[in-house]
Structures are given as structure tokens and as C-alpha cells.
């Protein structure tokens, strides 16, 4: 009876959260699945059934395939810059022995993550401005004016430029995860290695990184999911331009829905990338579990 009462209490406490998930997540998801099988412009009172035509249209659209390729590149940049930067900074901050200084630095590096994507877009757009931007101004100041570019107006540099801005906004989140995992490592391991003459780099490579196996696995999955959702920074900085060179899958779906009035194709594109995300995430987790058992 006591266990039943406890289960009932837990269920009642979870009901508000489950209700919010149902209203704002599950129902829209089901609605998106339904819309992907219809041809509809979002306004007409009648929707025409299209079955799998929307999926065929999306996967035969070269713009979607290019957006998918850019999304992969975006994820790679996110992984190297945001995740890699978060790991390195977490390792450096963990070496600070003065607790107040460590807390200060941890708070400062987390500030970009709490900024809205629109604010981040505005800040970095000003940094990249071809005439008054700090980046080109700095290049001129050090005598490298020949390297200046209209960064967000170049089909070559726009995607890396926006990717750097996105990584700057995200690295603080990964840093906190890595820092928590690093602080859970037994200090005796580092002390023993230091006594044996291991330097900071050797301790980081041979003790810290192997001990972060679970944290790294988690962060890789989160980085992949965040890369698929890369919309806010791109839209606030370039709107997918120039010449659609920064158009990710999320931007492609938005353009299909609100630019071309094709809600069915937008839903098909969004669900396609969601299925890809689920498949890759499940496959990666299974591989990680098998690798952990094989160690």
C-alpha cells in the first residue's frame, strides 16, 4: 500500500510536465507527421493528400541535399570548435586552485550560452562587418589588410563565419558538463602521475580524456542534435545566404514553409532529419555501449 501511494504521488507530480510535453511536443509532432502526407500552403481550407510525394520531392531536391551536406559540415565545426573548446577550457579551469577564481572564470565563459541567438547574431554580424567590423579593422591594423573579406557576404567564408559564432555561443554548455566530469576524477591519479614525472599534457591525454568517456559520448550526441537545430544563429546573421550558401536543413524547412508556402514539403524535410537524428543517436549509443563493454 505504501509503495502504491508513493507511485500515485509521483505520477500526480509528473502530470503537469507530461501535460506540457503532450501539448507542446507530442501533439505538434503528430501534426507534423500528418501534414507531411498532404499538399497544403498553410492557408487554404482544404488539404490535398500527397502520400509520399512530399518525401520524394524533398529527397530529389538538390537544395535539400546541399543543405544536408552543409548540416554535416556544421556539425563537424560545432564538434571541433564548441566541444573541443569546451573540453580544453574545462581542463584549464580545473587546474585553477583558488576556488573563487575558478568560479569567476566558470561564470564568465558560460555567459555566451545564456545569450539569445538573436543577440549573438547581432554581435557577430557587427564583428564581421566589412567596413566597421572589428575583424577587418584588426587585420588592417596589423598590416594584413589584403586578407580582409566581406565575411558574411562571401559564399566561401559565410558558413565558417556563422559556424564560429554558433560555437562561441554553445561552448559554455559543454564546458560545464566537462568540468563536472573532470572534478569527479580521483585527484590521486593526477598526483601519482605528477610524482612519476608526467607533465600537464601527458596527464590530460592519459588520465583526463580516458576518464571522460561517458561525458564525451553524451556531448557528441548533444552536439549532433544541436547541429540539426542550427537555425537561430544562421537566420539572424545571413537568412541562409548569400546564394543559400549557409542554408542548413532547418533553414531549408523554414523557407519551404514560410517562403514558398509548401507546408507538406517542410514537414517532410523536418521529419526526415528527425528520423536521421534518431537513427544516428541510437546507433552511436549502441556502439558506445559495446565499446565500453569491450574495454
Amino acid at each position: 500500500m505504501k509503495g502504491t501511494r508513493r507511485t500515485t504521488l509521483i505520477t500526480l507530480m509528473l502530470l503537469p510536465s507530461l501535460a506540457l510535453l503532450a501539448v507542446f511536443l507530442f501533439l505538434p509532432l503528430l501534426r507534423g507527421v500528418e501534414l507531411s502526407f498532404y499538399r497544403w500552403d498553410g492557408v487554404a481550407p482544404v488539404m490535398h493528400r500527397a502520400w509520399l510525394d512530399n518525401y520524394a520531392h524533398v529527397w530529389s531536391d538538390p537544395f535539400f541535399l546541399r543543405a544536408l551536406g552543409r548540416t554535416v559540415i556544421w556539425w563537424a565545426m560545432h564538434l571541433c570548435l564548441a566541444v573541443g573548446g569546451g573540453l580544453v577550457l574545462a581542463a584549464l579551469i580545473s587546474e585553477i586552485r583558488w576556488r573563487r577564481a575558478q568560479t569567476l572564470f566558470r561564470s564568465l565563459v558560460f555567459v555566451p550560452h545564456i545569450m539569445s541567438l538573436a543577440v549573438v547574431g547581432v554581435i557577430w554580424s557587427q564583428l564581421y562587418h566589412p567596413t566597421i567590423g572589428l575583424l577587418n579593422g584588426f587585420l588592417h591594423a596589423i598590416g594584413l589588410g589584403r586578407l580582409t573579406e566581406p565575411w558574411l557576404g562571401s559564399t566561401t567564408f559565410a558558413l565558417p563565419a556563422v559556424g564560429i559564432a554558433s560555437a562561441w555561443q554553445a561552448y559554455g554548455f559543454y564546458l560545464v558538463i566537462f568540468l563536472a566530469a573532470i572534478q569527479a576524477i580521483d585527484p590521486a591519479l593526477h598526483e601519482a602521475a605528477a610524482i612519476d614525472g608526467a607533465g600537464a599534457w601527458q596527464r590530460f591525454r592519459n588520465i583526463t580524456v580516458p576518464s571522460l568517456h561517458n561525458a564525451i559520448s553524451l556531448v557528441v550526441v548533444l552536439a549532433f542534435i544541436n547541429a540539426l537545430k542550427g537555425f537561430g544563429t544562421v537566420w539572424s546573421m545571413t537568412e541562409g545566404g548569400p546564394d543559400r550558401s549557409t542554408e542548413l536543413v532547418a533553414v531549408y524547412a523554414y523557407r519551404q514553409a514560410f517562403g514558398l508556402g509548401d507546408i507538406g514539403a517542410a514537414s517532410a524535410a523536418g521529419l526526415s532529419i528527425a528520423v536521421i537524428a534518431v537513427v544516428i543517436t541510437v546507433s552511436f549509443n549502441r556502439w558506445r555501449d559495446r565499446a565500453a563493454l569491450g574495454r
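The mean pLDDT is 88. Residues 2-35 form the longest helix (34 residues).
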